[in-house]
């Protein structure tokens, strides 16, 4: 916030504050949603992004540019576009994930297969539409595909904070159920938890958090997997009262610290999202090679 703070402080400081606040909000949303998503799936590899959420975001942006035009999308009311993106992404993810994870006979292979199929289908539609749009509009579209903390709207940040606060209150009231859900469906039912209701509520929380994060700054596919995996490694036990805060703090350190390194050492020679995706992808491959599925 204050490193090399020179010039018009009244202009620079609020912009830096919005950037840092957006990083903290995204770190919180992605960290919490990933840990809770892994809780209901009883799997340490699955994340909302891996299950096709980012491909849905790309398709949504492509459809908007294809139907309305790049300039119309850029000049569209930010709150309106933000609300439409969140509503569509929450609706899709909730319907898909609830169908997958509330039944007793759903297997990991089915979850992965459905996620891959939907992700491939969304990318295929996106690729088809991108080939049909004007090259100048395609350039506009490309800017929407990468996570960026430099152009976050302050009003949207406020709306996002309200949405995150509401679902966080829901998560706080359910905090004692998460540890039981992580034991699996049969064990949770035997311990008296209404599994279907608890999973549905948790998926609503995850859907809103991921939708807000993605609509605010763009997709970050492997960031949640990275911070969640490190949180489990650093935590001495797997209780959510410890894992969730650790995941959030690691996310804040990664985003704020990473942005600081890029600005002061690399002088914006690369985007923070690219570095995070690269490291997160390596972690994902390591988990797969180690067979750390559960």
Report on this model:
- The chain is an all-alpha fold and 294 residues long.
- The protein has one domain (9-290): ABC transporter involved in vitamin B12 uptake, BtuC.
- The protein is 79% helix and 0% strand.
- It is built from 13 helices and no strands.
- The termini are far apart.
- The mean pLDDT is 79.
- GO terms for molecular function: transmembrane transporter activity.
- It holds the Pfam family FecCD.
- Keywords: Cell membrane, Membrane, Transmembrane, Transmembrane helix, Transport.
Secondary structure layout plus pairing:
Blueprint: H1 9-41, H2 49-68, H3 70-75, H4 78-101, H5 108-132, H6 135-143, H7 154-173, H8 175-181, H9 185-190, H10 195-217, H11 223-234, H12 240-266, H13 272-290
Tag the structure with descriptive keywords.
single chain; 294 residues; mainly alpha; ABC transporter involved in vitamin B12 uptake, BtuC; ABC_transptr_permease_BtuC
Q: Topology as H/E string?
A: HHHHHHHHHHHHH
Structural domains: how many: 1
Strand content: under 5%
- So what's the overall shape? globular
Write the CATH homologous superfamily. Answer: ABC transporter involved in vitamin B12 uptake, BtuC
Main beta sheet strand tally, sense and closure: none
Cα radius of gyration in angstroms: 19 Å
Which fold name corresponds to the CATH topology?
Answer: ABC transporter involved in vitamin B12 uptake, BtuC
Structural class: mainly alpha
Q: Tell me, rounded to a whole number, the average pLDDT.
A: 79
Distance between the termini: 40 Å
């Amino acid at each position: 916030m204050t490193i090399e703070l020179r010039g018009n402080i009244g202009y620079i400081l609020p912009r830096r504050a919005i950037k840092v606040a957006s990083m903290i909000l995204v770190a919180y949303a992605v960290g919490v949603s990933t840990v809770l998503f892994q809780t209901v799936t009883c799997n340490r590899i699955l994340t909302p992004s891996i299950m096709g959420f980012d491909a849905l975001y790309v398709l949504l942006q492509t459809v908007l540019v294809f139907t309305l035009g790049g300039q119309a999308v850029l000049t569209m009311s930010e709150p309106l576009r933000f609300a439409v993106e969140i509503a569509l992404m929450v609706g899709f993810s909730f319907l898909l994930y609830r169908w997958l994870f509330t039944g007793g006979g759903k297997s990991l292979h089915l979850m992965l297969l459905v996620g891959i199929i939907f992700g491939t289908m969304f990318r295929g539609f996106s690729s088809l539409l991108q080939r049909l749009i004007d090259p100048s509009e395609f350039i506009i579209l490309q800017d929407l595909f990468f996570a960026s903390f430099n152009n976050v709207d302050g009003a949207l940040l406020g709306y996002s904070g309200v949405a995150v606060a509401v679902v966080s209150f829901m998560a706080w009231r359910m905090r004692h159920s998460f540890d039981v859900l992580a034991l699996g469906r049969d064990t949770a039912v035997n311990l008296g938890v209404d599994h279907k209701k608890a999973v549905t509520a948790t998926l609503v929380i995850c859907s809103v958090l991921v939708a807000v994060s993605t609509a605010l700054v763009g997709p970050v596919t492997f960031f949640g997997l990275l911070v969640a995996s490190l949180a489990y490694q650093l935590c001495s036990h797997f209780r959510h009262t410890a894992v969730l805060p650790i995941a959030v703090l690691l996310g804040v350190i990664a985003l704020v610290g990473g942005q600081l390194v890029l600005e002061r050492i690399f002088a914006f020679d690369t985007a923070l999202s690219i570095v995070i995706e690269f490291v997160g992808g390596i972690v994902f491959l390591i988990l797969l090679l180690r067979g750390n599925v559960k």
